[in-house]
Design goal:
Largest sheet: 4 strands, parallel
CATH topology: Rossmann fold
Order of helices and strands: HHEHEHHEHEH
CATH class: Alpha Beta
Number of domains: 1
Distance between the termini: 38 Å
Helix content: 40-55%
CATH superfamily: Alpha/Beta hydrolase fold, catalytic domain
Number of helices: 7
């Protein structure tokens, strides 16, 4: 965690958000194959789930594949620029954009890239306490731009984190996390036919 924070302070886009998003998406196919081999499942509908930066990874994966049946993103990072601005205020950092980081922000603008999702059913689950500019507004914009079925669910009183802070150790599920689970399961049941 210390190294991640140090990278974020040095260059949040080029050393943290951009590489994490791209590399995680690059590793998806290998990870899926390893899971298929380990647990013995080969086919059937495939859905993807992610939270915060992980939802950004899920969306990046979804722009690369045409075999997904559904996607659920929780408090998703849909546009990098407002997230960097919000985190900059939180951590007292004024990010200096460059042509290279502008390119990463363009790649990680899933509202602008909504057309690349095809007709994939997308549900975005957010908390009413999520930052409006960084999370709530982009979620509504993506749902409006999506060609496939999409919706935005806002859970009253929920913040960005699903676990009690700092959230690094196993802990009982929070009521908000249970509500997120219900919304995700409902979406997957509807579009996976299970």
């Amino acid at each position: 965690m210390d190294e991640l924070m140090a990278r974020g302070y040095e260059d949040a886009v080029m050393l943290m958000h951009g590489p994490v998003n791209a590399r995680a998406a690059d590793e998806f196919d290998g990870a899926l194959q390893a899971l298929r081999e380990r647990y013995g499942f080969a086919g059937g509908p495939l859905a993807i789930f992610g939270g915060s930066a992980g939802a950004g990874v899920a969306l990046e994966v979804a722009t690369r594949r045409d075999d997904l049946a559904a996607l659920v993103g929780v408090s998703p990072m849909l546009r990098l620029r407002p997230v960097v601005a919000t985190l900059g205020k939180m951590f007292g950092v004024d990010y200096r954009w460059s042509p290279e980081s502008d390119a990463v922000a363009a790649r990680m603008d899933y509202v602008a890239r909504a057309g690349e999702l095809g007709t994939l059913p997308v549900r975005l689950v957010l908390g009413s306490e999520d930052d409006a500019t960084a999370f709530l507004e982009p979620a509504r914009e993506l749902a409006a731009a999506a060609a496939g079925p999409s919706d935005v669910v806002v859970i009253e009183g929920m913040g960005h984190a699903l676990a009690e802070e700092p959230g690094l150790e196993p802990a009982p599920q929070t009521p908000h996390a249970a509500e997120v689970d219900d919304h995700a399961v409902g979406w997957f049941r509807k579009y996976l036919g299970v």
